[in-house]
Amino acid sequence: MEQNREKTAILAFLEGHGIPYRIYSHPKTDTLPEKLENDRRAGVENALHCKNLVLANRQKTRFYLLTMPFGKRFRTGPVSRQMASGRLSFAEEGILAGILHTRSGSVSPLELIFDENREIAFFVDRDLLSAERICFHPSEETCTVVLEREDFFRLFLPALGIEAGVVTVEEEEEKKLEEVSSK
Fold first, then answer.
1. Residue of 64, 94, 113, 182 with fewest CB within 10 Å of its CB?
2. Average pLDDT over the chain, rounded to whole?
3. Which helix (H) or strand (E) holds 6?
4. Looking at the whole model, is its pTM more than 0.70?
């Protein structure tokens, strides 16, 4: 299987820093049930799949990577306030390619290894702090890297000199109501 340069660099970084990981290939997926089915086929259990958004302030002078559970919906107002930023919008593809060496659909915190000037502030949703395992694409949509939460926060981020800010991305009201009514 041919690997892209970025994926190769990410895996070399993990190995070079003694960060254990599991990796598996799969068809491109767009829904959480598809992702969970890929996990089942790969023998991966209790793993949180993430949505990763690269955001910019209005002036396009400050950039943020927000990692949150795949099933949550991003709402700019509440998250912008928690990040102590003005209104945030999605960063342009040029930022993804220029700083993180990736493109929309393949973004993950693993690409922070390419942000040599630390131009991107990193934030996670609070739910990642209690996940057993966390899944990310290593700059390739048809591949998933699974890291233990502890290894991500205590080995990967410190190896980059990065500390994650923590925000709370609220569940949608409809989803909360469904959970309450199903109990």
1. 182
2. 87
3. helix 5-16
4. yes
